[in-house]
Amino acid sequence: VEMTIEYCIDPERADEFRALMQESRRSRLRQGALAWELVRDTGHSGRYVERIVDESWNEHLRRLGRITASDVALRERKLTFHIGAAAPVVRRFVVESALPA
After folding, report:
1. Which of 16, 23, 68, 74 has a CA positioned 20 to 30 A from the CA of residue 32?
2. Other CB atoms within 10 Å distance of the CB of residue 44
3. How far apart are CA 88 and CA 79, in angstroms?
């Protein structure tokens, strides 16, 4: 399972945002995620996507169940950077089948 969260932030605050996202990385991996990364959209200044990979749908749900009060506080801090008109876009993807090599 891959979950993405798309943030729109003020480019002037990019360094602060990236520093905070390192806390997010530690939090996601502590909760059991297999992988985490932050990518920046080169075509849209200020658009960042947080990418989290879980082993399976069940593990994804378990990871979400492991959220602590400090994780909630971290989410609130991340949201203070988001300047989009709507909430950050969250998407979940499930691998249907692997392609042959």
Report:
1. 16
2. 10
3. 8
